[in-house]
């Protein structure tokens, strides 16, 4: 009796849920330290390393379950799928954060961005106020951007992992 090969969808859901949970835990940790509005590069670095690690483990787990074989297209599907599931979970967290945990989150983020622009001399206080007002109206656009950037980064990580780990089935 032949065994069914593993599906990329199952691994995408499993490892996407793991990555989403880790991302939410990291975000809650930042929130508890009142650093959730911080734009420190170390936070982005930690997120990217976390994503790359979970995606690599997801692709490796799939390859192991697939008798040691992996195609580049499977790795790309897994990278994008894991990132998509994770991003959807993180967007749900962001919606909870901005609507319940910290309703002033958008305003705080905009204030930080405007302060940086004023300090660098790129905007006057009046221009910053107008930009903040406009930015608040379109703050929701960040959610699809999170989704798009996550999937693209997942594709890149999947491509790298796929090139490293790919192994074709013998032709016989």
Categorize the overall geometry: elongated
Global structural class: mainly alpha
Task: Give the CA-CA distance, first to last residue.
Answer: 19 Å
| Oligomer description | single chain
Biggest sheet overview: none
Count of individual beta strands: 0
- Rg calculated over all Cα atoms: 20 Å
| Range of helix content | over 70%
Strand portion: under 5%
- Note the run of SSEs as H and E: HHHHHH
How many helix segments? 6
- Poorly predicted runs of 5 or more residues: none
The overall average pLDDT, rounded, is 91
Furnish the topology, listing elements before pairings.
Layout: H1 8-32, H2 41-65, H3 72-101, H4 105-119, H5 125-137, H6 142-165
Account of the protein in words:
The chain has 172 residues and is an all-alpha fold. The chain has a domain at 8-102 and 142-165. Helix content is 77%, strand content 0%. Helix 1 (8-32) packs antiparallel against helix 2, helix 2 packs across helix 3 and helix 3 packs antiparallel against helix 6. The longest helix is centred in the middle third of the chain and has 30 residues, at 72-101.
